[in-house]
Amino acid sequence: MPSEEHGFSHIAADAARARADALDALPPSRRGPLHGQLIPIKDLCDVAGMPTSFGSAERAILARHTDPLARRLLEAGAIIPGKTLTPELGMTGYTEPVGLPAPDNPRLPGRTPGGSSGGAAVAVARGLVPAAHGTDGGGSLRIPAAACGLASIKTPRDPAGGGLVTAGFLAPTLSRCAALSGLRPHPGRRLIGVMDRPLWAETPVSPEARRALADAADALSTRGHELRPIRPERLDAERLFAAFRDIFSSSLLSVPTTPHESEIVSWLRECGRRAHRTSACRLMAEASGPHGRVARALGVDALLTPMLAFAPPPHGHFSSLPPEQNFLEQTRWSPWGSLANITGMSALCVPWRGGAGRPGGVGLHLCAVSMGAGELLALGLELEEEGRCAAADA
């Protein structure tokens, strides 16, 4: 099976077999909670002894140390079978690495699996692994989850500090993502805002996404939650997205260039040079948290939107455009996801299996506006159950 189909940039088969044998030799009392589970690591993070390419063959190094999250997985008994494909430096919502294969969407062949955790989504959607590690700095877990019919959880930003990016997992179910993230559900009746119009960019929302959103809202209402329509005008969307773009692009200023760097990365670095990072970080701090500017403006416990405005496009759809148009088109495709990154909210994506029955390309997105990750997880589990019921009735 080629990389386009399995989603890996590196497979450590011999090391994985040796670790499996060593784990099986342990007595039950010494086995960890993830004993023997295969969990690959996104190729932006180091695992000692494995190459890290950062989404470009020219940037590849042999890692000498192991990323803290990967180390925790190993300590819990997991097996890391390799690294999964990602776009260059994880900077796009599609996965077309430089000098490496572009993974294909298992649910929608010939189309992008999303990004930047695209290889991780492919490996899980193919059934090769039960879950995969990823990171999310603007929707990079949730976009491929929606594109490939999977679940994902973006954990909240550390209150002590942190930028746009958090780590997490993709899996077939939210419960598996939650177990890996150490989350427990906290049920309760909630006030949920429903936003069916794009937040960041003017773009049509597909009938399938609108129908999934309406069906999900009806299902949550039936379960006793209060639903309220939310208009994008309640937020200062233009300033918020400008702050996101400035912080996102300025992260490249400390990263060296390469001879064959992708056009979109070069363009984003130039945007970073012009960015107003200090004022953007100030706005991010003001917007963040359960009592921040965004939570006050929305006035709800959680926000429900589609994850993607339209179905995953064919390979090359984004990269064939000039860089500025490429970035705008990615924003049109996912015009809600990065709100959770600029505010630090917990967020999740749930595959919706209503109607056509088979997930892929339609995902529902929940953000914890003024409540915790455990409360959001409980809502997500209800939504996931309703999606399965809708598929059974279809």
Automatic annotation (TrEMBL):
It catalyses: a monocarboxylic acid amide + H2O = a monocarboxylate + NH4(+). GO terms for molecular function: amidase activity. PANTHER family: GLUTAMYL-TRNA(GLN) AMIDOTRANSFERASE SUBUNIT A, MITOCHONDRIAL (PTHR11895:SF7), TRANSAMIDASE (PTHR11895). Residues 8-154 form the Amidase domain. Belongs to the amidase family. This is amidase. Its EC number is 3.5.1.4.
